[in-house]
């Protein structure tokens, strides 16, 4: 199963480049979506401007502000599907402020294969093994999908609902998957999330959007995500 990686980012150039380099994947398997960073994300870290290194990732520029995170995820999912050309593949969707353990992608893809789930994500509470959830509906807050790092099965039609511009898009994807092949929580793999909710707290327009997104989620699904 080919694996592709999508990383939306805004004003975290150093962090996103460190993350991408840690993946050790060819540039054609990694997409950075630069959402109006100032300065823009460079195509590759460079010391010698006359002999620049090859790009570390494919780069897509996006300028919508405030951002629609679900739309950015969909851009990446669609890009990966086009790159895969009908071959079996998985798409890792990562925040720009995560630090991944070794073999993270391998463990996630293996869990998708073993269980037939549509989404895999890491457990963050010290449990071990695989938890394959297939019952649709609400998920306990402590067990919900890690929206900052997850891997979905490509080619099955999963897309983020772009009504959820900042919050609840991960919950919506999780609930979609629970109506299909389910989700799998992979224990024993810790992902470090450096700045949870910092962007939301620092931008009033995003803080306001969280309330609209939660309301839209209830309108769609009939109840709150958690």
Notable traits:
alpha/beta; single chain; 32% helix; EC 2.4.-.-; 20% strand; 226 residues; transferase; Spore Coat Polysaccharide Biosynthesis Protein SpsA, Chain A; 10 strands; eight-stranded mixed sheet; Nucleotide-diphossugar_trans; 6 helices; two-stranded antiparallel sheet
Global morphology: globular
The CATH H-level superfamily is Spore Coat Polysaccharide Biosynthesis Protein SpsA, Chain A
User: What average pLDDT do the residues reach?
Assistant: 94
How are strands sequenced across the largest beta sheet?
3-2-1-4-8-6-9-7
Number of strands: 10
Distance between the termini: 33 Å
What is the N-to-C order of secondary-structure elements (H for helix, E for strand)?
EHEEHEEHEEEHEEHH
Assembly type: single chain
Which percent range fits the helix content?
25-40%
Indicate the CATH architecture.
Alpha-Beta Complex
Structural class call reads alpha/beta
Number of domains: 1
Radius of gyration: 17 Å
| Main CATH class | Alpha Beta
Q: How would a crystallographer describe the biggest sheet?
A: 8 strands, mixed
- The percentage of residues in β strands lies in 15-25%
Regions with pLDDT < 50 over 5+ consecutive residues? Answer: none
CATH topology: Spore Coat Polysaccharide Biosynthesis Protein SpsA, Chain A
Number of continuous helical runs: 6
């Amino acid at each position: 199963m080919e694996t592709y990686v999508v990383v939306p980012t805004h004003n975290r150039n150093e962090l996103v480049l460190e993350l991408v380099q840690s993946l050790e994947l060819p540039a054609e398997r990694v997409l950075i979506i630069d959402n109006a960073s100032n300065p823009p994300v460079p195509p590759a870290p460079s010391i010698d401007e006359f002999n620049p290194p090859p790009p570390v990732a494919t780069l897509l520029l996006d300028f919508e502000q405030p951002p629609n995170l679900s739309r950015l995820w969909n851009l990446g999912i669609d890009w990966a599907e086009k790159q895969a050309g009908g071959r079996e593949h998985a798409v890792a969707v990562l925040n720009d402020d995560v630090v991944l353990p070794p073999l993270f992608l391998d463990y996630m893809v293996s869990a998708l294969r073993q269980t037939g789930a549509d989404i895999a994500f890491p457990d963050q509470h010290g449990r071990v093994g695989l938890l394959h959830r297939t019952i649709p509906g609400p998920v306990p807050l402590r067990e919900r999908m890690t929206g900052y790092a997850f891997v979905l099965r490509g080619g099955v039609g999963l897309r983020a609902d772009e009504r959820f511009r900042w919050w609840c898009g991960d919950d919506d994807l999780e609930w979609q998957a629970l109506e299909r092949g389910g989700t799998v929580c992979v224990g024993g793999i810790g992902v470090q999330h450096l700045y949870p909710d910092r962007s939301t707290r620092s931008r009033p327009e995003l803080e306001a959007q969280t309330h609209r997104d939660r309301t839209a989620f209830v309108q769609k699904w009939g109840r709150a995500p958690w």
